[in-house]
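I hope you will forgive my troubling you with a question about protein structure. The matter concerns a single protein, recorded as an amino acid sequence and a row of backbone structure tokens. Please examine both parts with care and let me know of anything in them that strikes you as inconsistent. Here, with my thanks, is the record as I have it:
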Amino acid sequence: MSLPAEARTPNLEDLESQIADLRKKVEELGPAQENKLSMIVFSGDMDKLLASMIIATGAAAMGMKVVLFFTFWGTAALRKPEANVEGKDFMSKMFGWMLPKGRNSLKLSKMNMGGMGTAMMKGLMKKKNAPNLDQLFEMAAQLGVEIKVCEMSMDLMGFKREEIIDYPNMEFVGVATYLNHSRKSINQLFI
């Protein structure tokens, strides 16, 4: 048995109600992804930090918003080489002593050879006019690359804010801040 024609054709009120329901569902999905790169910088190795900064500055130069989340071993790259912070407990002092003081003290992840590999890489970069870490951080700042530093990692390693470099777009945050950025990013990386 078939329905009468008027029963099969939705009326205007039904269509308006369906459209309103669809609009509400689309709004609940949240904003679309942005032209943004969110990167976790986990490693404290020179070559991996170089890769992170080259990718970050390249993405920023292409017009992408870039957010770097430095966590665990990566936070050592943000330490001021000359900083001597008082009032640390024994474990914090030990981490401070064992970990590199700043980005120019980092070692290669492979073929370090007691520091020879790192020196050779730095020499090769200079010879080939490749930007060093200081230059890459300067470019990143000029391009508006944001650095978010994991407060939990800093606390675990005994780092204090006053021993972290000055950088214009830096903020000390928790993981929720990174996750909020990454969920809206078209690209997410872990280095």
Notes: The longest helix spans residues 12-28.
